[in-house]
Amino acid sequence: MPLVIPEGLVVSVSGFRGRVGDPLTPELVCLLATAFGAFVKRSRDPSNDLPVDILLGRDTRTSGPVLSRAVSAGLVSVGCNVVDLGIVSTPTLMLAVENSDALGGIAVTASHNPAEWNALKLAAPEGTFLDAETMSKFLEFALSEDPPRTPSDELGAVTTDDGASARHLEAVLELPQLNLPALRARAFKVALDCVRGAGATIMPQLLEALGCEVVGINMEMDGLFPRDPEPTAENLTELADFVRREGADIGLAVDPDVDRLSLVNENGAPIGEDLTLALASAAVLQRTPGIVVTNLSTSAIVEDVARAHASELVRSPVGEINVARRMQLEGAVVGGEGNGGVILPNLHHTRDAPVAAALVLQHLVDEETSLSAAVDEWPAYTIVKKKISFPSEALSEGYAELERQLESDGVDSADGARFCWEARRTWLHVRPSGTEPVVRLIAEAPERSEAEELIERSEEILAMVVQ
Fold it and tell me: Which of these is catalytic: 14, 63, 111, 165?
């Protein structure tokens, strides 16, 4: 029977996400994988008669093993071969897909969501998430078709590949932006927090290969997250204390699937996720000035870095694949999102925390400085975020009323509405969430009070719209 999307399942270009057990069950996961396998087989070039391979990887969540087996069952039932990478980072899986003959990949991970959540993230053959057009086609197929199962003599096979993380590590070490002798000579002491996710498959190995002394917390890969796994500043108090206690030069925190990186300076102060992309971009632009792409909700500091290196910043809608597609269109040299995600086209068009870590350390080597001093080189901004309930059918009216009352310098409507005030270096982004049933208000200004006032004023305007 065709797929039925249950209430509570979050569907977006980021995949299918929900609480394990309700609505995300092994039965639903099997059906999703079955539909994806059948969709991939139907969509491929008719002249391609090679076996259909789909790569599979997962993070460390306790629900991962059973959901991965459900994925395998669904794919095998429609004649796809499964190459199981085991516990790997999402960028490791994406790179493996890109560098293979596989026609797609599935990551079983809910990324930064709490442990009781899980998700399926679907990869295209190029090693990126499905874009909006392909995801729309897949959903249409899955909701209308009942894929025929293959007979017993045509079932797919399941094999394993234990080398994907090692290949990813080697590819990072070969990046032209890295000066390995200089990095190894600097011999950073790094405090690492992998939040008991998949980070331990690659992060300590990479840092040691870069000549770092690594001290770690939450390195166990058991999925028992000791805190909110999203690596925001407020969630990094344990790492901050650890940096001070160990006398580390820098603290690095990744999310469970290792596509986002947050930084803590040598004084034990979390510095915010937007600085990850800014400092990584500086390392790239110093060598190859060019276009930088980020989303509409990312800090103006990335634009400051681009301008300082005679480069241009281009903004895209929120979402990794939207940034990646715009990077491909623009021929960007670096890009990413303000949540700590860095994309380096020299390797692939996927957010990659190992790459981000290497580039940030390279920037500190280039400038012969500490993390706190590197941050002080740039203007300081404060981002304030708030989630509110707001009816989706009233969004257009809400955007129009905000535009009328806020009197900004301009509005970008590519993803919700982004209002900017250039002289004040201030902006506001209002958009529906792609992963939660809420509207997000995000404001940035040089002073926290300005950003908070803008959020408060915007909330008042939107409240009047629905009175």
Answer: 111
